[in-house]
Amino acid sequence: MIKAAVFGYGNIGKAAIEAINAAPDFELAGVVSSSLEKGALGKIPVVRDVDELSDVQIVILCIPSRNVPDIAEKILLKGISTVDCFDIHSETYNLFTRLDAAAKKGNSRCATSIGFDPGIDSAIRALFEAAAPKGLTYTNFGPGMSMGHSVAVRKIPGVKDAMSVTIPVGAGVHRRMVYVVLEDGADFNKVTAQIKSDPYFVNDETHVIQVSNLDMLIDRGHSVSIQRKGVSGSAQNQRFTFEMSIDNPAMTAQMMVSAARAVLRQAPGAYTMLHLPPIDLLYGTEEELIRRLV
Amino acid sequence: MIKAAVFGYGNIGKAAIEAINAAPDFELAGVVSSSLEKGALGKIPVVRDVDELSDVQIVILCIPSRNVPDIAEKILLKGISTVDCFDIHSETYNLFTRLDAAAKKGNSRCATSIGFDPGIDSAIRALFEAAAPKGLTYTNFGPGMSMGHSVAVRKIPGVKDAMSVTIPVGAGVHRRMVYVVLEDGADFNKVTAQIKSDPYFVNDETHVIQVSNLDMLIDRGHSVSIQRKGVSGSAQNQRFTFEMSIDNPAMTAQMMVSAARAVLRQAPGAYTMLHLPPIDLLYGTEEELIRRLV
C-alpha cells in the first residue's frame, strides 16, 4: 500500500481524499492543513506539518500554484516524494529543473504539473505530435470555471470571492469572464485593472463582472477540445481530436493520485506527464494491463 | 543520426521511408525486401537480408503481423533493435514477453504493437483510465479499410485481392464489409466460410461481397472514436473522447518511426506504447518540449 498525505483541503484536496479512498493500492496517511480543526475528519489525522505524520511516501499537494515551488522543494529534500498541479505554463520548465534537483538531492520522486492542463492535455499533445510531427495543435478550453484563474483573482486585494470562466473562441484563443464579489469599499475599476494585468489574464480578452453572490453561478465542470491537423511522413490532413468534459477538481486530483503511483516506480528526480510511462499510472499487473489496453 | 532500415515495401514500408526522410534525426540505411529489384530505389540500398546492411541500429518491420514474431526475434538476438506494428490483440502479451526475452538476451530494444490500434489508441485508453479509473471505454473503428484484416483475407486460398472495411455499430461493436476479387475457379461460398472463421473476423458480423476490381474502392483513410465515461474519485459522468481520421499506413509508419526514437532511449527489453514515455517519442530538447507541450 502506498501511504499518501493530502496537503491542502480545498476543492482539489477534498477530491484527492476521494481518489485515494477509491484506489485499491493507496492508504491515506493524513491531511496537512493550516485551517482545518484537528478532529474535523474523524479518524483521518489532520496535522499542520508533514513531519507530524509518520511513514508518508508521497504528498499530494493540493495548494495554489504559487505556493508549490517552496513547499514541494522542502518536502522533496526531506526524502518524501510529491505530486503537484502547478499550472502556470510559462514557469513549468523552471519549476521542473528546480524540483528535479531537489528530488535527486533528497533521493525522492516528484511528479510536477499534473492534472488537467498541464496534465492529461500535455500527454495528449505529445502523442498527437508523435503521430503527425508537422502541423498545428490548438487547445480550446471551456466553457467552464478555471481553478487556477479563479484562485489568482481571489488573491487580489479588494476581492472577497471570484470565479473565472473560460470561453473558447476557437484556434486556441479564449475569452475570460471573471465574476467578482468585492469587499466593502473596494474600487471596482482598480480591481479590474489588476485582474487584467495579472499574468493569468494579460494575454486574453478579459471581462470583469461584479456580482453580489457567487453561489448560484458555481459549477466545477470544465471542458477542453484539443485539435491537431498535421502531416505523418508525407501524408497531409491527418486529424486528431481529444475532448473531455469533467468535474475539474475531481479529474485533477485523480490524475495526481495516478501520477503518484507512477512516479514512485521511477528513479529519483522530477517527472511531468510527458515523462511518465502510461502503464505506470494504472493499478494492475503488467500482463493484465497489456492484455486489456494495448 | 539514427540509422534505420525498413523491412518490407508495402503500403506501410513506403510510408516508413517517407517518415524517416522527414525526421531530422533519422537516416535511412536501406530497405529489406525479397521482391524489390536491387536498383529500384535509386541510391537507397535494397537488400534481401538485414545482415547485408552495416551499422543499422533499428529495423522498422513493415510486414504482416503473422511474420513478426520470428523475424523480430531473430533481429533482436543479433543486437539490432526493432519496431513492429503487430496487430493481433489477443496475442500481443505473448509476443511482448517473447520479444522482451530476445531483446534482453541480444542487448537490443524492441517497440512492439506500435501504430494505430494497438498503438496510439493503447496509450489513449491508458490515459483515460488514469483520469477516471472506474467506467467503460468503447473503441469504435471506421468507417475505413483495416490493413490487418485486408492482409488476412488476401492470404486465404482462392482470394486474388481483398479489402476489409470496418463499420462502427457503436459501443465498440463493428461490422466487417469484405470486398474480394476471386481467383478463377475459386468457390465464393468456401472463401466466405474461411473468412468468417478467421480469428480476425470470427467475433464480428461479417459480410463478404465479390467484386471484379478493387481499384475504384480503395481509400487508405481510416477513423476511430474512443469514448470513456467513468468515475474520478467519487465524481461520476467524467467524459473523454479521442477521435482520429487519417491515412492509416502513413500514421502507422510515422508512429513506428517515433517509437523507434523512443525505444533507443530505453534500457534493453521490449516496450509497448504503454511503456514509452511520451517525451521520448519526439524530436527536440527536453527544455523545448516541456516549454511547448506541458
TrEMBL record, chains A, B:
InterPro entries named among the record's database cross-references: Diaminopimelate_DH_Ddh, Gfo/Idh/MocA-like_OxRdtase_N, Meso-DAP_DH_C, NAD(P)-bd_dom_sf
Keywords from the UniProt entry: Amino-acid biosynthesis, Diaminopimelate biosynthesis, Lysine biosynthesis, NADP, Nucleotide-binding, Oxidoreductase
Record-annotated Meso-diaminopimelate D-dehydrogenase C-terminal domain positions: 115-170
Enzyme class label: oxidoreductase
Binding site for NADP(+): 9-12, 62-65
Catalytic activity as recorded in UniProt: meso-2,6-diaminopimelate + NADP(+) + H2O = (S)-2-amino-6-oxoheptanedioate + NH4(+) + NADPH + H(+)
Domain Gfo/Idh/MocA-like oxidoreductase N-terminal, residue spans: 2-81
Catalytic activity, EC: 1.4.1.16
GO MF annotations, alphabetized: diaminopimelate dehydrogenase activity; nucleotide binding
Any single Pfam family the record assigns to this protein: GFO_IDH_MocA
UniProt record similarity statement: Belongs to the diaminopimelate dehydrogenase family.
Subunit structure: Homodimer.
Name of protein: Meso-diaminopimelate D-dehydrogenase
Organism: Thermoclostridium stercorarium (strain ATCC 35414 / DSM 8532 / NCIMB 11754)
Gene: ddh2
